[in-house]
Here is the input.
Amino acid sequence: MRVTSDLWVSALVRRAFAAGGFAAVERRGATEAGAIFVVARSRLGRLRLFGPAPQSSYEGAGPSDRLFAELADTGEADEISARIAREARFDPDLWLVEVEIDETTLADLVPVRTP
Here is the structure.
């Protein structure tokens, strides 16, 4: 059984702070099953957007795992905002979390699969 989006986001925020980073929930979605998007901001300002991985990425993963795919890698906040606005029109229940942590911790907290 997969944990709720609310619980998963809460754990992400706490683990980011515990690792010496920063995290903020920018948009709250559906408590039970809202899609989660993560914006990772590097200390130098580079922005990366991660969203739910396609179903084909779950071949070896258990049904309770939550996997992400990198959707954008840019320095432009406007590009990320536009992408989130498009996603929100499609799914108004989405969550948006921004984190500022090092790459190693990011890899531990946001499991990324390449489609």
